[in-house]
Amino acid sequence: LLWTPGLVAVGRVALPLHSELSLPWDSTLKTDLEEIRRVSCSCVISMVLLKTVTKEKPPFTVSDKVNQDVSVKMKNFQKNFQKCCGFLIIFLLVFMVFSWLHSFSISRCQSYITKLIDWDKLQTTSLPNLKYAKPSALQLPRTDVNILTPWLAPIIWEGTYNYDIINEQFKQGNHSIGLIVFAVKKYIQFLPEFLRTAELYFMVGHKVHYYVFTDQPEAVPDITLKTNRFLHVAKSEPYKRWQDVSMQRMESIHQHISNWFYKEVDYLVCADSDMKFNDYVGVEILDELVATLHPAHYGTKRNHFPYERREISEAYIPADEGDFYYMAAFYAGTVKGIYKMTRVCYDGIQKDREKGVEAVWQEESHFNKYLVYHKPTKVLSPEYIWDNDMGNRAILKNKRFIAVPKNHNEIRN
Question: Any residues with CB less than 8 A from the CB of 318 and at least 6 apart, and which?
């Protein structure tokens, strides 16, 4: 009875104290606190009344021995009752504190911390004195191709941007980029040319980490890398079917992001190993989530896209939905953006396996399904993934990332 009113007093001062500190508070928790006050007060009143009642003489006459036994039992009952009430109050207070901490979300913490920023000490970084032609607000940089999606994501073509400007802006963030490539089984033969051309054209002047997934670590070439370029090798399973090798990429990328990649890079670029860089590929390809138009379907009508059309598959896309058909041989994004995408695609692949289903184009089908409902923030034109066997196109002013000539059946066998 000595400490119980003190605990009740804590509940009485908690709300005014919170108001003075301007901390977040949930209305539901406030109601819970009022209920705890009422329960606590009731417990105190009950214990006081019980104490009073036990001091009164019984209204009937009994022998001294019986009266003594009854008195002892009442005292024991009183002590046990007080203990129960005390434990109940402690439990309620602990529950209240836990609920309040749970409601104190990360976003609210960040909002509170930002109030402590010394705004007068914030610094700005200016771009260097660049010389370039004045842009026009009335004329498009190119009229032969579309350069903007309906959701305002830019479509990157040669001649639609000034690389000097965006490159200088990117440098201010001191970011690093990871390039992921899978060279499993016979695809290891393409790795030397892939890395050689990447050193010439990929993210020149920026910090780059190459992440090579392979089942043959000893076959990874020992090439000389430029300053701030690093090569890492990760083990990959050599599945018998090339379809399984392809689908494991989503799983591997997803797992390594959470325990490795996020510590070293800010952006991730994922590319096929049977390709090579043919011209400069820089920061113009980076954004939250970036996908590349398939070179064989950039002009295809929606109902002719090679989407997964079977409803039983997790990659199913209805005939009246979809924007473009993207190729999973070259895509990019922030570490967070790629993590979310690979997690959803990997979950879809796993669910299909449990049902004994395989999407028509394996991981690419799940990749396109994700992009229907999670729009890419930037779209790359076919310049960033072209096959010279398809010939030339007037709209292609450049071919930056191209397929290496090969016999697909021989490589995949």
Answer: none
Three-state DSSP at 5 gives helix
The rounded distance, in Å, linking the Cα atoms of 343 and 328 is 15
DSSP 263: G
Residues 6+ apart with CB under 8 A from 342: 250, 251, 253, 254, 257
364 a catalytic residue: yes
Q: Is the dihedral of CA 358, 360, 366, 367 positive or negative?
A: positive
- The predicted structure's pLDDT at residue 306: 96
Closest CA to 203 of 232, 234, 229: 229
Helix (H) or strand (E) holding 58: none
Supply 121's token pair: 């000490």
Phi, psi of 311 (to 5 degrees): -65, -20
User: Tens digits of per-residue pLDDT, 326-344?
Assistant: 999 999 999 999 999 999 9
| Phi, then psi, of 150 in degrees rounded to 5 | -60, -20
Q: Name which of 303, 314, 289 is nearest 365 in CA terms.
A: 314
* Tens digit of each residue's pLDDT (9 = 90 or more) over 117-139: 777 777 788 888 899 999 999 99
pTM for the full predicted model: 0.71
Residue 253 · residue 180 · CB < 8 Å = yes
Catalytic residue among 251, 308, 358, 364: 364
Phi, psi of 163 (to 5 degrees): -65, -35
